[in-house]
Write a structure and sequence with these properties.
There is one protein chain. The protein is α+β, with helices and mostly antiparallel strands. The chain folds into 2 domains: 72 residues, Outer Surface Protein A, domain 3; 82 residues, Ribosomal protein L6 (Outer Surface Protein A, domain 3), CATH 3.90.930. 20% of the residues lie in helices and 37% in strands. The chain is built from 2 helices and 13 strands. A 4-stranded antiparallel β-sheet has the order 11-12-7-13, covered by helices on one side. A 3-stranded antiparallel β-sheet has the order 1-6-5. A 3-stranded antiparallel β-sheet has the order 2-3-4, with helices on one face. Strand 8 and strand 9 form a beta hairpin.
Length: 179
């Protein structure tokens, strides 16, 4: 039995859940999410919990068991609390600011990068070097943060670029020069 898959999912107050024709929908104070559920997994929905179980014991079904439970749990957490990924910008003259529905990045290129903020995502910039990507869909928050990071990934010599707040950059030694 899957250690993650067998855990029940608690349904908080104010969250509405529906499951029709293999489409699982969650409605909460932050928004609405829906996802197609694989037919090899069964859901038992009660008043306060959701239990995910397997239909058979195939290897693909066992793999989908824990994945489905985690995806459903992330949906429930997202519509109640939301998710946040923090990014840091390192480098002289590197900065970010939000203008309307765009994130404007100055990252040492000859031009500024204008990134359109997707629907369901909010971006806060603090001190022009700290970016907070927030939203209720964990997959979209992570994808947006990865896209912003890809505009100038951190380099290993001076650490210049955009990095995750909890990321450590392995530094390399530069050239030693003649003596």
């Amino acid at each position: 039995m899957s250690r993650i898959g067998k855990l029940p999912i608690e349904i908080p107050k104010g969250v509405k859940i529906s499951f029709n024709d293999s489409v699982f929908m969650v409605q909460g104070p932050n928004g609405n999410l829906s996802r197609q559920i694989m037919p090899c997994v069964a859901l038992d929905i009660s008043e306060s919990t959701i239990v995910v179980s397997r239909v058979d014991e195939n290897s693909a079904t066992r793999a989908a068991h824990g994945l489905t439970r985690t995806l459903i749990n992330n949906m429930v957490i997202g519509v109640t609390k939301g998710f946040q990924v923090d990014l840091e910008i390192n480098g002289v003259g590197y900065r970010a600011e939000v203008k309307g529905t765009e994130l404007v990045l100055s990252l040492g290129y000859s031009h500024q990068i204008n990134f359109m903020i997707p629907d369901g995502i909010s971006i806060d910039v603090e001190k022009m070097t700290k970016i907070a990507v927030k939203g209720y869909d964990k997959e979209m928050v992570g994808q947006t943060a990865a896209k912003i990071r890809s505009f100038r990934a951190p380099e290993p010599y001076k650490g210049k670029g955009i990095k995750y707040a909890n990321e450590t950059i392995l530094r390399k030694a530069g050239k030693t020069g003649k003596k």
